Amino acid sequence: MPRGRPASEPARRRKRPNGNGGKIVLHMSETGEEQRVFDFQLLPVGDEMQAALADVWRRLTGLTGPWRSIASSKQGWQALQRFANWTERDAPIRRQSDITPALLAKWTLTRPRNSTGRRDKMIVARILRECDGLSAEALQSLCFRSTREKTQTRAYSVDQARQIGADARRVFAQAERRIRMTLSKLDAEWLSDSGAEADPTEGRTLDSSEHSAQLPGSLRGIRIRMRSIAESTRAEEWKSLFLTGLEARSIQVLLCDEFGWNLSSIQRLGIPETTADEGVSLYHLRLEKRRRKSGRRFDTASLIDDGPQSRGRIITRILEATEPAREVLELQGGSRNDLVIWRSRKAIASDDEGVMRSGMVTDGGTWNRAFGYWVNFKRLRRTFNVLRGGGPNQNTARTHHEQYQSIEPVFQREMAPVIAAGANAALLPATLIRARVAEEDAPGDETATATCLDFEHSPFSEPELACRATFLLCFACPNAVIMPRHVPRATFLLDSLTALRTALPPMIWRRDWENHWARLTSLKDQFFSGDSWEAYRSLVTNRDRSIVEKLLQGRLAA
User: With bands split at pLDDT 50, 70 and 90, how would you rate the model's confidence at 193?
Assistant: First the structure.
């Protein structure tokens, strides 16, 4: 007798909803946790254009496409909607051939001169370049280079950042005290009802309407049955076990203030890998920067909690404050891997999966009402990285310098003397007087500016060849001696070079004459007083003037 049963056909895989002629596209995020449907029939363009744009959208949001998150596709959809609405008013598009260079140029000129306008131009150009059926002229007009402008966002002052951090710490500390007090109260009530002995390590279940078994776990094993809470008259008390949106925002502010991380990285923080030994915990947090390519998107931050003042203590506190919310998510079958979790404003119910929230906090207005200001995370991050010495945190050294340090007024003021010192150090070799200045005249081989002691071993010529350098370089040559008889000519040479400075274009002056002028100025300042220099100037002869004139005209070159 045959055993078993015939094999059944494998279940067919569900296809993504691309009905209505393929004009509806479903975008599933890279993690699979989010999705969004885009209906191209809603765009005020022709049917042919709708179908072409939908095909482009599938490529951009597909498994190998560049738009991996819902935020990216949502931003692209908003830009495309603005373009389509604009064309409906100005020049309706029915098919790809209706897109002309003139239309694109007009669209470009109508965009506002801000970040939104620049983003619209870049996103629409990228979408249309992928669109089949555009003319070569239209594609050519879509190929332009985007200039990245420096941000106008500036860091908070140190005092402002300190106040923001203090406000966030106060809010989070109040939340911690409330959660601990509620847990202690519920434990005391349960022990009183059951007659059990107090054991801080023993787990239990909060249940106001039905009996349930004790469930062990971290933080005294608190597991909250959502249906019991919803039916209880004490539902508001159970809510006090969870962070509010304002308190979750305070945690994100604290992480940005303490470590200078990007807000998008903070919103995606998961439970860290933890190693604990003898009361010391080592946390490894995975930081994700979504805009980077896949090979460079993740960094690891390692923090140690070995006492109240350690940098890792904030992670321990966050884990303890959010543990009750994680227990709720586990009972609902959801993920409990997010670091920051808070309850929404919805009523608690056992079949409602939207009770707990993670990721982006939308209670910024609550913060503004509580403290009278909005928190700008970009400014807070800049304060940490530039003013508090955070360095190229999650950035390359080049990006840190160009987009963070160089635009901060405080950094510019601090670096001004350093830059000046560097410029002077670079200028010093070119203006250094290497010639010896003698106090008395002596016989020797004369040049146009000094006396030469060794024509055959010049630092400006090949070995064993006679010097062929300009006589202006005698002041920079260790073989030269400047005697009192040469100084009147040097004063006239300096005056002549100063006059050239006003007569020549700046570029030519810097290239041909500035170093010589600076060297003579150093000679005057280092070796002569103002009176002695003026005395030598009064001794200038016609022969000195003639020699200087020929020297500057190049008629004395070797």
Answer: low
